[in-house]
Amino acid sequence: MNLLRAATLCRGQSSRLLANAVTSSSSRLFSAAPAAATTLPPSIPRVGAATAFPNEYPGQNYIFNWCLNADGVTPLQKCAFRITKPLDLKVAGLALPKSSPLNVNAKSDRSKVPEAGMTEALSFDTFDEVTQRTKDALSLSVALYCPEGHAPNTKFGVRVITNSGKEDTLVSDLMAYLERMPKRDPTSQSVTCYVLGGPSCEEFAGYAIEEVEEQTEDGSREAVSVATVVITGKKPSLKR
């Protein structure tokens, strides 16, 4: 009986000691928690200094820039305005057209814009050489203005890439001449016009039509006709 009573007393004392140890340990852990929370890794303060991405603004749109790059023009000055509606003219700092739609009679000027490879006046080699020089010059321009729309009375998409901006009304006139297209993300167009203006620009006008393969929505590929138009001069006009 004495042994049984002694064992019972030992178990009771051990339980009390264990409970006290656990309580003491928990108290120490909870009391130490606030001190640990005040010690932060040195990397934590840098989180607040992160910058926003992507860094886009009017004239700097990554999707549109990639689209221009596919057309062979890279806006190195990070200033390329896609203009699909009158509000885009205001954003680019350009004047609104005086009248819209704008009707242009260019029959007398069509003969001055030969097709490459169809006449002796313009070979494919000459056209390709001038086209590449024009693309390079546009890439270095301070700003690019790119009106987009349907050719009048058609569903052919047209994109004009030009450096002619505030100096004249070419972009505003183009916006009034082209028919507005449904709103969509930037993509390649059936007709791409490269228009370079400036005092030192040579007078040139020509175009080329070729067939390229494009991927359709169902993943298949089909041949489509695309046109490249190149106009350079001191002051390019809408008629050309």
Overall radius of gyration: 35 Å
Order of helices and strands: HHHEHHHEEHEEE
Q: Helix tally?
A: 7
Helices and strands: which structural class? alpha/beta
Shape: globular
Strand content: 15-25%
Q: Mean of the pLDDT scores?
A: 82
For the largest beta-sheet, the strand count, sense and barrel status come to: 6 strands, mixed
Low-confidence stretches: 1-10, 21-37
Note the quaternary state here: single chain
Distance between the termini: 120 Å
Please count the beta strands (DSSP E, at least 2 residues each): 6
Determine the fraction of residues in helical runs and give it as a percent range: 25-40%
Q: Order of strands in the sheet with the most strands? A: 1-2-3-4-6-5
What is this structure, in a nutshell?
With 240 residues, the protein is an alpha/beta fold.
Set down the secondary structure blueprint.
Layout: H1 2-37, H2 44-47, H3 62-70, E1 80-83, H4 86-91, H5 107-110, H6 124-139, E2 144-150, E3 157-162, H7 170-177, E4 191-197, E5 204-215, E6 221-233
Parallel strand pairs: 1-2, 3-4, 4-6
Antiparallel strand pairs: 2-3, 5-6
